[in-house]
Amino acid sequence: MVRVKTQYVCQNCGYNSPRYLGRCPNCGEWNTLVEEQIQSSSSSAATKRPTTTLTGLVAKPQKIGEINSHETPRVKTKLNELNRVLGGGIVPGSLILIGGDPGIGKSTLLLQVSGQLSSEHHRVLYVSGEESATQIKMRAERLDVAADDFYIYPETNMDSIKDTIRELKPEYVVIDSVQTMQATDVTSAIGSVSQIREVTAQLMQIAKSNNITIFVVGHVTKGGAIAGPKILEHMVDTVLYFEGDLHHTYRILRSVKNRFGSTNELGIFEMHTNGLSEVKNPSEIFLEERLKDATGSAVVVSLEGTRPILVEIQALVTPTVYGNAQRTATGLNRNRVSLIMAVLEKRANLMLQNQDAYLKAAGGVKLDEPAIDLAIAISIASSYRDKGTQATDAFVGEVGLTGEIRRVNRIEQRVAEAQKLGFKRIFVPKNNLKGWQAPTGIEVIGVTTLRQALRLALG
Prior knowledge:
Layout: E1 4-10, E2 16-17, E3 33-39, H1 80-85, E4 95-100, H2 106-119, E5 124-128, H3 133-142, E6 150-154, H4 158-168, E7 172-176, H5 193-210, E8 213-218, H6 231-235, E9 238-244, E10 250-258, E11 266-272, E12 275-278, H7 282-287, E13 297-304, E14 307-319, E15 327-330, H8 334-347, E16 355-361, H9 373-385, E17 393-395, E18 398-399, E19 405-406, H10 411-420, E20 425-429, E21 443-447, H11 450-458
Parallel strand pairs: 4-8, 4-9, 5-6, 5-7, 7-8, 15-16, 17-20, 20-21
Antiparallel strand pairs: 1-2, 1-3, 9-10, 10-11, 11-12, 13-14, 14-16, 18-19
Helix pairs in contact: 8-9, 9-11
């Protein structure tokens, strides 16, 4: 006999409560608990059946010595930026979640990738719960996507989708989006926490038992996180965030979880009317509008994954008109900025406690590594003293609380990237100068303290 139980589930974090609460005690959000009905009988028996492959074989336990451990070859797309973010290419049988703001280009990216994969004789199934087949066809024509093994399937019912996958036997499946899919075993509304969790679990079972790569599009909340419970990101293999400003053409694809590669990789694209194109040298974009003699500007060689990127850090320091000085940061960690300003005041004798400070990383990129500390300090001091840095100087180093400049990783790659883009001097931690030879054409200056770096860079 079917027993129906009512519970209230937070649509933000997935917290369950037997009664309605105005505020979720787990995440603190207001009015997010929604009533859902769960059935505690044989109605969920479909999820209890053993895992079967498309050929009907049942998964069985194997001895670890009998498992073939050869490395699965990755499938490379024609977008090298995407290959880099994924860790070298697509791993067969992986479940990849892509999130981003509405209209940022998630569907465009996956439609282009689907067309490229099908043109390489891979069978692709594009499942859309938000657009009709005609609408997708119109967008595909604009993006010049056409192939024989590319199938469009507008459907939201997971039972029908699984039957289609069983009949078509695709190598790649795109689900656009997971919030529009419906599992018939769950009685809650489409897009609820229970539905998203169950749909993702079924997709994961399909991917792992049949070695099918599945791309899943996820909506994001106002805070920028993927909608649904956090367990959604734990279930998948890779989580990618598609970021950018709708008023600009550049898009950043960032990896925040990857079981098959680095989680710090960054891919940069430019949006055109005919789709997304790769940006092969992003450093030129971040530096192309830099003024020659501007104060409050310093260039840092930041390392995003395996790629060094030169970014301009800008600072504007002005006397405060309020009781407490303001600290504003865009693309940088605000706490890191406050810490560096405290070190500058204590160790370099800069009176910053009555100064408002506004900092940003130019180009819309977000930087969060210790090696950017020195460039932040130089830009703040440059604006405070109203004295510009040389246009051909770059800065790399971590600033300690006692004012020392600490070593950073992969200094050779950072220096080589600065030299390639025409920089004449680069300030690095002195302890990083051992064991390697600097390239010709660039002067590498080792510094040990923040006070020494300010003296050499600003005079």
